[in-house]
Amino acid sequence: MKIKYLISIVGPTAIGKTALSIKLAKYFKTEIISADSRQFYKEMKIGTAVPSSEELSQIKHHFIHHKSIEDNYNVGAFEKEVIQRLDSLFKTHNVVVMAGGSGLYIDAVTKGLDYFPEIDASVREGLNKRLKTEGLHSLQNQLKELDIDSYNKIAIDNPHRVIRALEICIGTGKTYSSFLNKEKVKRNFNVITIGLTADRETIYNRINKRVDILLHNGLLNEVKGLKTKQHFNALNTVGYKELFKHLNGEWTLDLAISETKKNTRRFAKRQLTWFKKDKSILWFDHTTDSTTIIEKLKNKFKT
């Protein structure tokens, strides 16, 4: 049986993953899996920088706008659905391309998820109430006391991540970090991961330009249309949460835009920190010609 390959393209936001994924998919005559955890949601068309209609028409994409922000969807469900889809795609393709910047979702597909025990729902409910009454800082301090390793490693400004780690600590009496990095599942396909990067100034300039383009394309109007739904977790996303603060009268538009750019730059930094942990990634400068990358891939297929 011929070996099947999943080519995973990673890197910080606005670095050019979509363009490269389309070039590779065209060359290998295959399809693309999106691993961007916000491009799943059909209500978030502009702010998530989904591939354009022209790009989507060139190559078949999967897991874009297939869910609603009101759906209960998580990384575990994504892993299960992607593996099922890959089983189907590999019946007719030897290579499938996956592209995205959501490290946890990418790792779920390529390495499998860490196992966590079921926790009583009341624990999370209590933490969510504390988030509203005491604020995120209180939860961050508790996590620091209970599990300093997780405090130092997770996206500490993301309430969902903090609550998830605390939920495990409180519900099991063990640290969240103690459940991580156990032996992972063995996939029936090989994974080759390509990373795109650039110097920090270039990444930041591309991000600033991306935000300006999204605003020009109508991001503010999109966020206005979602104002009554801003409580959904999916909308606790850079570009949306800042503009909600403007629409709620807390910030000026200029401040919301500058904060969006700043928080997107911070997000890109966290992305790179996450991906740099994986020593198997083949890194390329974002200006590298796709033919060079294709030749490198073909050589990897032979080994």
What is this structure's SSE topology?
Blueprint: E1 5-10, H1 17-27, E2 32-34, H2 53-58, E3 61-62, H3 75-89, E4 95-99, H4 103-110, H5 121-134, H6 136-146, H7 148-153, H8 159-172, E5 190-197, H9 200-216, H10 219-225, H11 241-247, H12 253-276, E6 282-285, H13 290-302
Parallel strand pairs: 1-4, 1-5, 2-3, 2-4, 5-6
Helix pairs in contact: 3-4, 5-6, 5-8, 6-8, 9-12, 11-12
What do these coordinates show?
By secondary structure, the protein is of the alpha/beta class. The protein has two domains: 5-114 and 182-302, Rossmann fold, CATH 3.40.50; 121-179, Histone, subunit A (Orthogonal Bundle), CATH 1.10.20.140. The protein contains 13 helices and six strands. The chain has helices at 17-27, 53-58, 75-89, 103-110, 121-134, 136-146, 148-153, 159-172, 200-216, 219-225, 241-247, 253-276, 290-302, and strands spanning 5-10, 32-34, 61-62, 95-99, 190-197, 282-285. A six-stranded parallel sheet has the order 3-2-4-1-5-6, with helices on both faces. Helix 2 links the parallel strand 2 (32-34) and strand 3. The protein is globular, with a radius of gyration of 20 Å.
Strands, count: 6
**Count of folded domains:** 2
Mind telling me which CATH architecture of the largest domain this is? 3-Layer(aba) Sandwich
What is the number of helical segments per DSSP (H or I, 4+ residues)? 13
Radius of gyration: 20 Å
CATH classification class of the largest domain: Alpha Beta
User: Ranges with pLDDT <50 over ≥5 residues?
Assistant: none
Name the strands of the widest sheet in spatial order: 3-2-4-1-5-6
Q: What's the SSE pattern?
A: EHEHEHEHHHHHEHHHHEH
CATH superfamily of the largest domain: P-loop containing nucleotide triphosphate hydrolases
Helix content: 40-55%
What is the global morphology? globular
Mean pLDDT over the full residue set: 93
Query: How would a textbook summarize the main sheet?
Result: 6 strands, parallel
Question: What is the fold-level CATH name, i.e. the topology of the largest domain?
Answer: Rossmann fold
What structural class do the secondary elements suggest? alpha/beta
Distance between the termini: 16 Å
Portion of residues in beta strands equals 5-15%
